[in-house]
Amino acid sequence: MNLARALNLKALVFATAIIFVCAYTPKHGQPSKNKGAKQVIMGYVGGYRGLIRTDSIDVARLTHINYAFVDIKDNRAWLHNGKTDEVNLRRLAALKTKNPALKILISVGGWTWSKHFSDAVLTDTATKNFAESAVAIVAKYGIDGVDIDWEYPGMEGDGNVYRPQDKTGYTRLFKYLRQGLDSLGQLTRQQYCVTTAVGASQQYIDHTEMGKVQQYTDFINLMTYDFTDGDDTVAIHHTNLYAPLAYPAGRLRSADICTKEFLAAGVPAEKLVMGIGFYGHAMQMRNAMGHGLNQKAVKAVRVGGFSFIHDSLVNKRGYVRYWDSAAHAPYLFNEERKIFITYDDEQSVKDKCLYTTQHGLGGVMFWEYFEDKREYLLKTITENLAYR
To answer: How far apart are CA 293 and CA 285, in angstroms?
Structure first.
């Protein structure tokens, strides 16, 4: 859809809209001068499973909801699930009647649907068209912005097309998204949000231009989880805050290390949002040495979300909770079954929230809302962040 046409069609619809500001953010590309600025709480909500029970979302505890995911087709942003996505987006937009400051964003990509990003930003024209298509979705459903979750620029990811040109194409994408949303905002008198979820590694930084990208974005969401993904032959923490004292060679990752890497790459602290995992990773171990941590694993096994872990496994059914004081990370081990589980809990989440405040970060985000239906972790977040 041509952007100008989309804007003209929607102008009258938005003329009477309530004016919202993309709260808690500095002016685009400018560092915040307010050391006590409010922090954000971004929850990714998965719509790929079907209809979302939006009435069960605790909107008073959130500043942003990122709807996951919008796909890419013919170099355009595309609602893969059609009618289901449309219903979900309209219901999510309606939540702003309960929390007028709430921001609803579409998140494009994800692990599975990042296959065609490289094609969509290969040329200047293609990038403009892709940005226009994403802005048109924002305009149609009366929501507040776009999140890009490209996994990963310049790297294969889940069997993706990738090229060296992805590095500059990634930057160009945010430039045109920012321009398109600002043009829409001139009609609606609304300030729109642009965010991106990024891989928590130096390798991701090396394949992008984060110092330039941050000029066009409100927040950079650090996916500081899944540190175990790609190689589950050794049991390590999947979402630890700090580096452990001893770790297998080449596997040293932490939220703290990632934060420092992105700061060094030119991203202002107040735009960095730390990721929290609302789910666990589990591994079948070869033996019971060291309660599993840093030991050889046989295979990955399924465990589920935090509400299940909290209610059914922590110090129950043979699973004993341990705490790595160096990494600020919990883990479970079942000695009889030889199963190791790594996850975030209330103690580690509190520590992450305190870290973001002490280091002047923008706040926290988490994947995925319905993995903790009892809201143990969300309540911990709201008790420890200055988000109001």
So the answer is: 10
The tally of CA atoms less than 13 A away on the side-chain side of residue 88 is 27
The single-letter code of the amino acid at 170 is Y
Pair of tokens at residue 236: 């390590």
pLDDT tens-digit series, residues 165-183? 999 999 999 999 999 999 9
Active-site residue identified among 151, 209, 261, 270: 151
Q: What angle do CA 240, 246, 252 make, to 5 degrees?
A: 50
Mean pLDDT confidence for 331-348: 98
Cα separation, 227 vs 217, in Å, equals 25
Read off the pLDDT band of 18 (50, 70, 90): very low
- Give me the half-sphere count of Cα atoms (radius 13 Å) on the Cβ side of residue 67: 35
Report pTM.
0.91
Rg of the chain on CA atoms, in Å: 21
CA distance 178 to 125: 16
Instruction: Provide the token pair at 310.
Output: 């909290």
148, 191 in Cβ contact below 8 A?
A: no
What is the rounded average pLDDT of the residues 257-271? 98
CA–CA distances in Å: residue 112 to residues 48, 116, 126, 159, 163: 11, 10, 21, 9, 18
The lowest-confidence range among 62-71, 108-117, 244-253, 305-314 is 244-253
Q: For this structure, is 151 an active site residue?
A: yes
Burial per residue of 66-99, b for 16 or more beta-carbon CB atoms within 10 angstroms, e otherwise: bbbbbbbeebbbbbebeebbebbbebbbebbeeb
Q: 277-335, pLDDT tens digit by residue?
A: 999 999 999 999 999 999 999 999 999 999 999 999 999 999 999 999 999 999 999 99
Evaluated on CA atoms 334, 335, 339, 340, the torsion sign reads positive
pLDDT in tens, 132-161: 999 999 999 999 999 999 999 999 999 999
d(CA 354, CA 276): 13
Q: Which domains does the chain have, with CATH numbers?
A: 14-278+345-384 (3.20.20.80)
| Among candidate residues 358, 293, 350, the one with its CA nearest the CA of residue 324 | 293
